[in-house]
Design a protein that fits this description.
This protein is mainly beta. 0% of the residues lie in helices and 58% in strands.
Length: 119
């Protein structure tokens, strides 16, 4: 079994910062890519940022220059540093990892953490 546990969401004023964390645990051989998606009410889930196992990153255009994704391979953890937050960043943020368990690789999802940007 594999579990992804997220933390770090909350309420922040526009212009503020938050840091999300997602730790993977369980029967893990290796982790291919790690990323964050978000879903706002009435909207489709969208990719926010992703980092591969060699450190390559990609971001949604809407967050470039404001968000930074990073990973700690020793801890099987991915982080999302969010700066200059805007009300339109309000959403449930979900961690997504592609994990190799030795015989196959599969996508796993966290339970989601709420980020609310409001004054």
């Amino acid at each position: 079994q594999v579990q992804l546990v997220e933390s770090g969401g909350g309420l922040v004023q526009p212009g503020g910062s938050l840091r999300l964390s997602c730790a993977a645990s369980g029967s893990i051989f290796s982790i291919n890519f790690m990323g964050w998606y978000r879903q706002a009410p009435g909207k489709q889930r969208e990719l926010v940022a992703r980092v591969t196992n060699d450190g390559s990153t990609n971001y949604a255009d809407s967050v470039k220059g404001r968000f930074t994704i990073s990973r700690d391979n020793a801890k099987n953890t991915v982080y999302l540093q969010m700066n200059s937050l805007k009300p339109e960043d309000t959403a449930v943020y979900l961690c997504n990892c592609n994990i190799n368990r030795g015989f196959l690789a599969a996508d796993y999802w966290g339970q989601g953490t709420q980020v609310t940007v409001s004054s």
